[in-house]
Amino acid sequence: MEVIQTQELKMVENEYFSIDELKCKGTDECQMDDGFLEKLIKIREDLGRPMIITSGYRHPAHNSAIGGVKDSPHVYGKAVDVAAMGEVAYDIIYLAIKHGMTGIGVSQRGAHERRFIHLDDMSSDTHPRPWVWSYK
Questions:
Q1: How far does Cα 7 stand from its chain's mean position?
Q2: How many domains does the chain have?
Q3: What is the pTM for the complete model shown?
């Protein structure tokens, strides 16, 4: 896989995810981790359907501005939030574990359009791993 890189944009080129959907919503920077993205691509291939990314890379200043966790995997380009519910959410969780994601957050309450699955592959050196949690 070829890597697309400029000063503010870095991402493994692929057929499933674009820089536009993975870039920081506050700064337009995209610094996705290659290893993480390769796992995400494998999940997408096995899922066999589109995955709508609602949050990808976050610049630390933007992460702070939106109230994100200080040491969020998003600021390292090692996390995404995927819009999903029901059976699709179940399938994403199964495939995430299969492909080595170590952090899985589940938000399945409230309005359907706001439900998501958080996926990351942070190491146990920085975060307790493996770990699954639910959002309020």
A1: 21
A2: 1
A3: 0.90
